[in-house]
Design a protein that fits this description.
Number of helices: 15
Shape: globular
Distance between the termini: 59 Å
Largest sheet: 7 strands, mixed
Number of strands: 20
Radius of gyration: 22 Å
Helix content: 40-55%
Length: about 450
């Protein structure tokens, strides 16, 4: 795979301060496919200084021109969509059709949505005898994960640029190649030098330096709740704004009136998507006791169809982590009805699609984010019991509700403590705000609410 041996700062590729590199491994076969610089705190400082120098000019750029640059970026991503998909497949292990349909197509849609929002957003309004201005928060430090390596980049960078902010991006070390491709696209789209900067590197080095840097005004992080706490503490000490999109343990609530077969099949597909490496995955399926056995049989059969459809996990550490959770589920008394901890292939970081029955709310696999193709099926007695179980974790990122009547599903969803709920299989909407309640995060991404995260408010009184 094509890989730059430098970092992208102030509109150009330049050597990193150190000599260390990060090897990029294809998780399907464990072959090294490239290497990128392991950026240092000095590299981060150089990038932040470039972003600060570019901030006044970009913030003063008319929104229509910022929108034009984002539209150009979208067009470049469209032209390179096949290369994007192939790159994500190589470094993440995602099957190529999924990379094409999701890893390439969704970021393109999100970039397009912000091109339109930048042109139409109201950055100034009247409030009595005051004029209220919405201004860019400043320099953004964006730290992105490996599971949706381009989508998460675009979901942070596009609204930041639309708002008039400048950005330093530190992508996940497992999937840095598509981030380099994105930097090429930004350059080709004519975004001014210094407005976007890329430093590849390790989280504890480059990521921490970016979060701590006094020249960064906002840190936008997507990843684990544990790391989110650390970033929140760093930002709190500096009274720095943060946006945190963290873990999830989302409930898929199938009410008694629902079309059980459809709800189960869509639910299993949701969990297996991206090999289970999705923070918003509906990893807990809640079924009424009278239909529980039928749902378990349907889920087991559905999971078996994904053995040859999903890719590996991103690395060996993640594979061992997920296998450990499966073993713990068995040890705590849950019943395996599909899959298991055994690796299905000799090479690569594979885990079988796994389904547990007889899961109780207090079990580890029902409380902690596994981040793999593992589904837990829980039974409930009545609607209040289902609500108690659905809300009974520290997370609140997403969820689903199924019922014969939409109004019934909506009434239940309104009582769920979670940021986003799909009703009867509702489709993904790039304009809908995405983010969590409780320990699933702070702030929102996507759409107008995502743009608002990168703005601060000033009022003038007359």
């Amino acid at each position: 795979m094509k890989a730059h041996d430098g970092i992208y700062i102030d509109g150009a590729w330049r050597p990193a301060a150190g000599q260390d590199v990060i090897e990029v491994v294809n998780p399907a076969d464990e072959q090294v496919i490239g290497a990128v610089p392991a950026g240092t705190a000095l590299d981060v400082d150089t990038a932040v200084r470039a972003a600060r120098a570019a901030l006044p000019g970009w913030a003063a750029t008319p929104p229509a021109e910022r929108a034009a640059r984002l539209a150009a970026l979208r067009d470049v991503l469209v032209a390179r969509k096949d290369e994007i998909a192939e790159t994500v497949t190589a470094e993440l292990g995602s099957p190529l059709p999924f990379s094409q349909a999701v890893h390439a197509a969704v970021p393109i849609a999100v970039a397009g949505s912000y091109a339109e929002l930048a042109a139409s957003y109201v950055f100034e309004e009247k409030a009595g005898n005051s004029t209220v201005f919405l201004e860019p928060v400043g320099v953004v430090g964006a730290i992105t994960p490996w599971n949706y390596p381009l989508h998460q980049v675009v979901a942070k960078v596009a609204p930041a640029l639309a708002a008039g902010c400048t950005v330093v991006l530190k992508p996940a070390e497992d999937t840095p190649l598509v981030a380099q491709l994105f930097a090429e696209a930004v350059h080709e789209a004519g975004v001014p030098a210094g407005v976007f900067n890329l430093v590849t590197g390790l989280g504890p080095v480059a990521g921490q330096a970016l979060a701590e840097h006094p020249g960064v005004d906002l840190v936008s992080f997507t990843g684990s709740t544990a790391v989110g706490r650390q970033i929140g503490a760093i930002a709190g000490a500096a009274i720095k704004k943060v946006a945190l999109e963290l873990g999830g343990k989302s409930a898929n609530v199938i009410l008694p009136s629902a079309d059980l077969a459809r709800a189960v099949n869509v639910g299993v597909a949701n969990v297996m998507s991206n090999s289970g490496q999705t923070c918003s995955a509906w990893t807990r399926m809640l079924v009424h006791r009278d239909r529980y056995d039928e749902a378990v049989a349907l889920a087991a059969a559905a999971a078996g169809k994904y053995a040859d459809r999903i890719g590996p996990l991103v690395n060996g550490k993640q594979q061992q982590r997920v296998r450990g959770y499966i073993e713990q589920g068995v040890a705590e008394g849950a019943r395996l009805v599909a899959g298991g901890p055994e690796a299905p292939r000799e090479r690569g970081y594979w885990v079988s699609p796994t389904v547990f029955a007889d899961v109780t709310p207090g079990m580890t696999i029902a409380q902690e984010e596994i981040f793999g193709p593992v589904l837990s099926i829980l039974r409930y007695e009545d609607e209040e019991d289902a609500l108690r179980i659905a809300n009974g974790t520290v997370y609140g990122l997403a969820g689903a509700v199924w019922a014969a009547e939409e109004a019934e599903a909506v009434a239940f969803a309104r009582r769920m403590e979670t940021g986003q709920v799909d009703i009867n299989g509702g489709r993904f909407n790039p304009l809908a705000p995405f983010g969590g309640y409780k320990q699933s995060g702070v702030g929102r991404e996507l759409g107008a609410h995502g743009l608002a995260e990168y703005l601060q408010t000033k009022s003038l009184q007359f």
